[in-house]
Amino acid sequence: MIRTEISLVLIACSLSLTKAQPEEFKTIDGIIGALYSSISGPAGERDWDYFHSLYKPNAIMGSISPDSDGILGYRSMTPESYVTNNAPFFLKNGFWEKEIGREVQQFGNVAQVFTAYEFEMQGKDETIKRRGINSVQLIFDSGRWWIVSIQWDSERDGNTIPASMLNDN
Fold it and tell me: What is the CATH class of 23-165?
């Protein structure tokens, strides 16, 4: 009987340890920083478990991007399909994304973050740099911030990041 109780206590302790969340998830600054760091780095594996830990179940992602004919359209995905579609690219290419500006609106446990970004991709033959804006919707639940939605669009002719969104203003 005592062994069973001890076993149950040990199981409960181990479950609470696995549910512990990183400190950075307790602030908006931290979760946004984690978003960028989770996909940035030299060619190779990413910590996809950490990436998934940023998102609430049923979170959505999406981007405005051109199709093969150059026509812009919305492409929706889940964090899992993002990993499936992009993990092979990250294995072969360096990719660093950093925040270059931010606007936050928060009401209680809900926040909307417009975060301007700049990324650099390093393939074996070239380096590409681009900028854009992520629209990140967050909720504060169970003692931490979670991403429930992230949508993004890139800069292009006629679609530039407003100067007010850049850090140097």
Answer: alpha beta
